[in-house]
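Worked Example 4.2. Consider the chain below.
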Amino acid sequence: MKAKISVIIPIYNHAHTLADSLRSIARQTYAPAEIIIIDDGSTDGLGQKISAIIKSSGLDPSLIKFSSQPNQGASQARNAGFAKSSSDLVIFWDADTIAHPEMLKKLRQALLASPKSAYAYCGYKFGCKSMPSFAFEADKLKKFNYIDTTSLIRRKDFTGFDPDLKRFQDWDLWLTLLAQNKTGVFVPKILYKKIVSKRAGISRWLPAFVYNMPFIKTKSVLQYQQARQALIKKHSLPNR
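Applying the procedure from the previous section yields the following structure tokens:
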């Protein structure tokens, strides 16, 4: 049986970007078998807008499963989406992700061509910034995360996102898989971008050096530092 793909979209207050993101899924040269949207307690009227958003996307509405839950955070929303999915391959797709038309095709080809790999990942842009990405290297992954959440994962290898972590959920997943001797295969192309001008919901990004400046002690920086220490302890990482 051919390996099909489930696209899982956790969303929190991103009704304004969802239509563009869905349209980029509609343009994929390899179509997903299903698209699961988990509304994590949005307050921007997503529930009232979703029918019009889906209609404007160009997708077959029968492919889309939409459900809502009280706000629980990104990890719980992604795990809930996984529980509702059924395909052999899954990809967690933020609601402000705009993909190249061949993204799913290329990730799927790479993963199927590498049967020992648990997931396939690629380069991407955060707004106009190209994010660092590298071929898989275990030692490098233990120092910093260079693999984004939006990666194609074999269902049988997915261990779930840790709901106790408020940051680094993707890094934690890759490290958990690495501890099981499961690695990823890299597609050395930029195949998607995140819309940052309107970004406010499921996840966020700032340059790493901002979090390491001793004179910056904002709530966000303190949360970052606490989450990093928790991850270092959980996976016995070098503290640097």
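Helices lie at 15-26, 46-57, 74-84, 103-112, 138-143, 169-179, 208-211, 219-235. The chain has one domain: 5-205. Compare this with Example 4.1 before moving on.
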